[in-house]
Amino acid sequence: MPLVFVLMINLIKNEEQLKFIIKLFIVCIGIKSITGLITIFISRSFVLLYPGWSESTFFLTVIFFYLGFRDNCPGDPLVKTMRIFLISMCLCILFSTRRTLWGSFIITICLYFLFMKKTGKIKFIGLLIPAGVIFVTLVSLSDSSPTASNGEFSLSSEIKSMKNPFEAHTFILRQWEWKNAWEYIKLNPLFGNGLGTVLEPIVDFKYVKRNAFASMVFHNNYLWIWAKMGLVVFVPFLLLIYLSIKNTYQLYVELEDPYYRGVLLGIFLSLMNFIIAGFISPSMAEIKINVWLGFTFGFIVLIRRFKRSEIISQINI
Fold first, then answer.
1. What is the predicted pLDDT for the residue at 140?
2. What is the pLDDT of residue 224?
């Protein structure tokens, strides 16, 4: 989903198109969160959230920016009705075991409290934030979690794992993935090995079961594009990302509505979070650095906004 946004942001021609895309993504992720929760309660399994929920937090920042601005900006009536999605999204965040969620979620928390300070009011939805923190703390201190019984990662083990981005097991998987990708890239660096090619592991490590990873030598977007389609596609792909960053910043400068400026900044921070983490880590399922990027981006924005607020208040005095 972040890559879809990269493409769409480069196709935006005016402010109205940008607002439409923002509304579209909010609706899509809201519907996805509700259907995901329904599936969970039917199947009694939290593992169904595992495959794709890291992308969900990419747009959660958009929602929380709206919460901060709704008291000071008229906003769009359609967007205001989208508050019904907030609870389902927050529940999906709390139930998910993906460590990649937490980087963007940390950004979301920082930005939410920033604009809650700006409005001077604490809304009911704000209670979900401390409730989520308490929930995660209790689970992290426990010996088990809802997913521990079925052999999947428990939330407590995920949190412990996030504290050490260079733990041995994860580092071995990253090294194994990079080496396999590089072997395939060397076979045909210019044009790649073809989209339909089934890539099997070339380099084996004793700590990695071949049958467990035979079908996914690597699933990092950057490595996959280079190995499958070569430099002729990989270089334009990097150019597309660069243009997306440039265009996003340009749109941010040109927008006058503070509501949509905030929304766009939230999208931009989460986009940068995933792009940088994607380059650093070969496996999107192992991005622990995403969490620390979330801390960094969140606190930088908080500090800058607080300083700006102090300067404005001094000028007004």
1. 47
2. 73
- Give the number of residues written for the chain: 317
Domain borders along the chain are 2-165+256-316
Angle at 47 between CA 271 and CA 213, to 5 degrees: 80
Provide the 3-class DSSP secondary structure of residue 52: coil
Distance CA 188, CA 244 (A): 28
CA–CA separation, 258 vs 249, rounded Å?
14
**DSSP code for 202:** S
The reported pLDDT for the residue numbered 185 is 85
Tokens of 282: 């070969």
Write out residues in the chain with pLDDT < 70, as ranges. 1-13, 22-175, 195-199, 201, 203-221, 258-260, 262-263, 266-267, 270, 273-274, 277-299, 301-302, 304-317
> How many CB atoms lie under 10 A from the CB of residue 47?
15
The CA-to-CA distance between both ends of the chain, in Å, stands at 45
The answer to whether residues 257 and 75 touch, using CB atoms and an 8 Å cutoff, is no
SS3 282: coil
Where do the H-state alpha helices sit in the chain? 2-9, 15-43, 57-69, 77-80, 86-95, 101-119, 128-141, 155-162, 168-187, 210-213, 221-229, 231-254, 258-280, 289-316
pTM for the structure as a whole: 0.57
Cβ contact 126:112 at 8 Å: yes
Helix or strand or coil: residue 93?
helix
State how far the Cα of 190 lies from the Cα of 27, in Å rounded to an integer: 40
Q: What is the pLDDT of residue 14?
A: 72
